[in-house]
Records
---
Amino acid sequence: MDTLNKIINWFTDGSSNKLSYHYFSRKFTPMAFIGPALLVMAILLVFPLLFSFKLSFQQWHMIEQASPFWIGLDNYFELLANKQFWNSFGLQLLFVVVAVSFELLIGLLVAVLLNREFPGNKIIRALLLLPIFILPVVSGLTFRFMYNPQYGAINYFLKLIGFNSIAWLSHPETAFAAIIIQDIWRMWPFMFMILFAGLSSLPEEPYEAAIIDGASRWRTFLHITLPLLKPTIMTAIILRTVDALKAFSEIFVMTSGGPGNATTLLSVHIYKSAFKFWELGYSAASSYMLVFIAMIFTVLLVRNMFSE
Amino acid sequence: MHKFKSWSRWKKGLFFLTVFIILFVELFPIFMVVTTSFKPKLQIWTSKSPFELFRPTFKNYLQVFKDRNFAKYIKNSLIIASITTFIALFLGSLAAYGFARFKFRGNFLLSMGVLASRMIPPITLSVPIFILISEWKLLDTYFSMILAHISFSLPYVIWLLLPFFKGIPASYEEAAMLDGCSRQRVFFSIFLPLVAPGLVVAAIFTFMLSWNDFLYALVLTSSRAKTAPLAVSEFIGQFAPEWGMMTAAGTVFLIPVFIFALGLQKYIIHGLAFGGDK
């Protein structure tokens, strides 16, 4: 602590001298607090990002080439013409849209359902949170285990209600549904938690007015609860969307992108092109497309935060 | 809305049935992990029903910890996550204080930059970080893993703490400064004790973020610095999936999760919601 104080003192006035306090505190004190973090982020975030931006204009097959060479926009042209890229791009968007909508729907329904005083409410809410904190790799592997056509638990339940067992991870459509189901299972409680916190902090007065007016429960929900909850819902959607864009490990251990390319989301595509085919320039270019999508949602989040 | 007590028996019954079904679906995979970890191998591969009775065995646990040396990977994970959490929390709390308490040009832009960097998918950074780390000959070291983990946890910490810090009234600090305290003394002896609960939340979540990481472990480590999540994934090979070992390791991971989710519920809500809330 002492050395740190000295360093900070060196950056700032370091004395109780009024004059220098006024002068320096405006100019340098904020930087003494923020500077170290900014420096670290510049080295660990900005520099790698710029490095990969440069890389996206180069060709570098790490195994065959000693060093990269410039090819201009070729990686981007290749990417735009690459069916596999567009396939991954589409799968990524579909994954995010389907998973997040279901999570929102289930989370909202359960939040409304549980938003009352009943015996055991606290322990039930706590238990519902458990899936969020499970290691994604363990979640992915456990679902892979449960999807197994011979001894998997999911097929046991399917047979119980009279369906045939399905080799979930061996067919393109069911494999894609399987990774979405895993994501919904693990993350709808996240939506629930945020929406529940939002619901329980809503003001009472509009509801009292609605009761006096004799409004039906459904109309009350539609015209009072939803509009009041809208900012919370928006925040929850955007946070989950950004997280769903990061999904990698659970999908990688469930299907490694297969069968074929049926579950090769953009993140898996980038991983494969970099660390399986060693096309580093191409993978840098495609990772910038993912950043681009993430930034759109960031802008939405910022606008949502400041529009209240 | 809150008239539960006045409900009829039928309505209450229906309500609890729905709650039970939801809980069953959410907890079933966890039940699978725990029970499978105590099952003999043969029974895992032949069992017709997940509720089949079995004679519990510790063989899977023995295999995980004796044959596969799992304790070493847990140790690696703990070391990497602890150091990452310490550094990210230290730098992050200083920065969040700076953003929350000072008016200066670029404050808004810089804090938006921090938010934006929290949104960047780690896969994007994994390629350049891998190249740089391998050029610096630092592959498979704790150091490289800690660097990589700080890259995503530092913006996260700042963004988690910022709204929390802003909510603390500045009057204490102003009083102390009028008495002649320097800014840094105000920060360390007055402000930090005030925000201790927030720091605990941030520490837990940062630790978890680093602990959960699989991508960087996959890209940057091979044996010496290999972390627990990567080791778990290797139990499931292409041909003979070792479900017993995977679930045994998974059960070990569940213990802190249980303590955490059941014991610290009100902190969790804060941590989850403030990931980007105002």
---
Amino acid sequence: MAKPFLIYVKQCPVCGDGLCRVRVCHDLQRGRLTGCILCDECETVWTDPTLKQKFLRGKVEGTPCCPDCGQSLWEPNSHWADIPEVCLLGWYDSVQIVRKENRDQIV
Amino acid sequence: MARRTSNDPQAIANVLRLIPAKWLVGMLVALVLYFFLQPKLNAWFGWNLPSIAAMAGNETPAKPASPKPASPKPAQPKSAQQKSAQQTSAQAELASTKATEPRTTEPKAASTKPSGEPTKSPATAKAQDQDDWKYRILKPLGRDRYESPAGLIYAPGSEEGHRLSHIARHLEDQPDRPGSHGVFDGDMAAFLVAIDDAYKRARGHAKGTKSRLEDGMTVYEAPFDQTVGYLGGTEGARKKNPKLKKLRLVLRDRNLITAFPIQ
């Protein structure tokens, strides 16, 4: 379901067109929620909102992977973070939040 | 045809008698070198050098390593008439490419339909259209993977589930999206042709193109003579949607991750 807010850190420094957004991966086995920053255009992954450290190694080739469990960030157990999750990660001050006018256009 | 005389053994023997031995050896060496380098040069630089067999007239000309460069005007302004004309030109171009390219002779075969593709029904005219442009331009590789004439791979991936669906986001503006959002001014077929053109030129280090490596990804930029799109998103709206004349491609090996017009 489309969320009413779009949460992002900044425009992607790699591709220049994507938004660096907060992606969370819910590791069901360990009951752990991991956050990372994922460009929604070029799929570059950073470990935190400072965008200093990229995560390059994952278990699934050709897809962005969770820095913690290494699984694809496009799997059903991952999703774009909502505001409570961003707070939980302690990243609220690092992100920008915009309300979506047209929910169909920004998913 | 005139070429027939050069194949006549008697004529060749006469010519050979007139040429000094040193020259003959030199020509032979050049011929052997060309024989080995021709396919590699075509692959590396996207050239279309003919094979020796083709030059001798024993074979059809070498298949292009990539299609004829897309028109420097892959996208035209927005009128429906112009768009349809543009699509027709892109199709004609691709058809001419197909004529010399054996591997693209079968794309319309129903048996090549990838797995996971929804079955066509009369009600889904849009899906039918989508398959049409896919098969006219891209060669199915199986498992929902496609290869463009220039060798780019469009595979499953991205949030949308497939790279083709992902780049389709750049066919429309997203006015509420924060920042800039490059919008290609044309349809998907024209977009794919333009991407291929940009890829070939950037890979061949053509004038004005740029490329850089980003931790396993390659980012290419290629300028076009005419506008290929416009700047969308909130940034674009703020700047009154300026026209864009460059394409940026992000690749992992030959796999296209994304492509969009930039300033």
